[in-house]
Amino acid sequence: VSLLIYTGPDGEKAWPKKYPFCGGVFQSPIDFHKDILQYDSNLLPLEFVGYNVPSTDQFTLTNNGHSVKMYLSPTMYIRNLPFEYAASQLHLHWGNRNKSEGSEHTIGGKHFAAELHIVHYNSEKYPDITAAMDKADGLAVLAILLEIGPFNPTYEKIFRHFRNVKYKDQMALVPGFNIQELLPNRLDEYYRYEGSLTTPPCYPSVLWTVFRHPVKISQEQLRALETAMYCTESDDPEPLEMVDNFRHVQKFDERLVFISFHE
Ligand SMILES: NS(=O)(=O)c1c(F)c(F)c(S(=O)(=O)CCO)c(N[C@H]2CCc3ccccc32)c1F
Ligand SMILES: [Zn+2]
Q1: pLDDT tens for each residue of 91-133
Q2: Which residue, 109, 103, 112, 126, is CA-closest to 247?
Q3: pTM for this one?
Q4: Atom of ligand 1 minimally distant from the CA of 64
Q5: CA 106, 121, 232: angle at the middle one, nearest 5?
Q6: What average pLDDT score do residues 147-163 get?
Q7: Of 92, 142, 141, 140, the residue nearest 115 (C-alpha)
Q8: CA distances (Å), 154 to each of 157, 162, 184, in order?
Q9: What is the residue with the minimal CA distance to atom 13 of ligand 1?
């Protein structure tokens, strides 16, 4: 998927033509509203191993033309899921400077400003993410909803590098830090459902964990996210701003979302 388009004639409605799974079952994202939620007391707080990466290590941040993503190390993994899932990368979805409503998942029909995804693969069953990404039990993605509040120094450890990945295929090195600090405080309160990748090829291979509580970043940090990057390469005569890179919520019939908390 070179220049993944979210809007216009080649937008998300056209994805199924080239990527059949995008028109298939178990598609993400979805809206969480009360009549599809069911409390499940077996949903334990997630445990993270190796997330506190020393600053002597470095993560590669890159602009891949439709998101900004940071590669993580497979020494980072999640316990307390059906299998052990090793970290692969994190990336973001956002709106635009006039409409800061770029989250993919919504709660009661409400969009949040943006959404961080940390993509993991089932390292117990598969050697790498490429082998795992089209398997029903292949991926686990953590989703953190972002909203406006005070300046967030942990997010700034990534955001400060946006000026060096403005254009497609540019890269920057980010000193290691504790990735768990990107998550909300209540790791025990989340939505859980079986869904898909929200970009082509849209494989229905993702165990989604969407944390109940949003994390706050400042208006300025959000503005930087919404205005820093382009989908196009640095020498492209017609630059295309990287904005509104979120998929709209999908139909969710006859399915339930399990919640680890009492409303
Ligand atoms: N919202 S999401 O979590 O569904 C999701 C994305 F939204 C997204 F943009 C990407 S990607 O790596 O930028 C490009 C995918 O083709 C991935 N990347 C995943 C999917 C395929 C793949 C293969 C190797 C490494 C990462 C990924 C992704 F899982
Ligand atoms: Zn994503």
Answers
A1: 999 999 999 999 999 999 999 999 999 999 999 999 999 999 9
A2: 103
A3: 0.97
A4: 13
A5: 65
A6: 98
A7: 92
A8: 5, 14, 12
A9: 67
